[in-house]
Every structure is written in C-alpha cells, then in structure tokens.
Design brief:
With 99 residues, this protein is an all-alpha fold. Helices cover 61% and strands 0% of the residues.
C-alpha cells in the first residue's frame, strides 16, 4: 500500500491524451450513429484545420501536408510520433492500424 494521499497521486494528462479523451466523450454523444468514429474525427479535424489556418502563418498547409504524407507513406513513423506525445502511464503499443 502506498502512503501517498489521493492529491499526490493526481496524474496530469498530456495534450494528446486530453484530445483522445475528448474524442471518446464525443463518441458517446453520437451513441449508435453510423460512422460515429469518422464523424467525431471530422469534427476534430475541422477545428484543427481552423487553428492551423489562423495561427500557422502563411505556410500552415505545408505542415498539414507533411503529417498527411508521413501517415500515408510511413504509418509506423506516424505511430511513433503519436506514441511519443502520450504520457508515461499510457501503454506504448497500439492496436490502431493506419492505412
């Protein structure tokens, strides 16, 4: 048993983990809707693209294209990028397969 009280055991999520948690929460909101995973992902993508366009400067689309190219051409590298942005408490292996 640990002597730490509950306040000392609070875990801080990384920004990626917070987004993943929001994704899961939104999935619940869609209930049994068709293609709910794609609907939620599309909503998050819309918000992300808006933020890229607003805050990314004139070349914001180059960064977006770079990530898309990595995902398309080297899914393992993309997976490593995602995993490197997760906290230490998350399992480092994923069953997600990228196309």
């Amino acid at each position: 048993m640990s002597d730490k009280d509950s306040e000392e055991m609070v875990v801080e999520f990384t920004p990626l983990e917070k987004i993943e948690e929001l994704y899961n929460e939104l999935l619940g909101w869609y209930g049994e809707a068709d293609s709910k995973e794609l609907r939620v992902a599309a909503k998050l993508l819309l918000v992300a693209l808006e933020k890229f366009a607003i805050h990314g400067g004139n070349q914001w689309h180059d960064l977006v294209s770079e990530y898309i190219d990595i995902l398309r051409k080297d899914p393992e590298k993309f997976q490593r990028i995602i995993e490197s942005n997760r906290g230490e408490l998350k399992e480092k292996t994923s069953t997600t397969r990228y196309h």
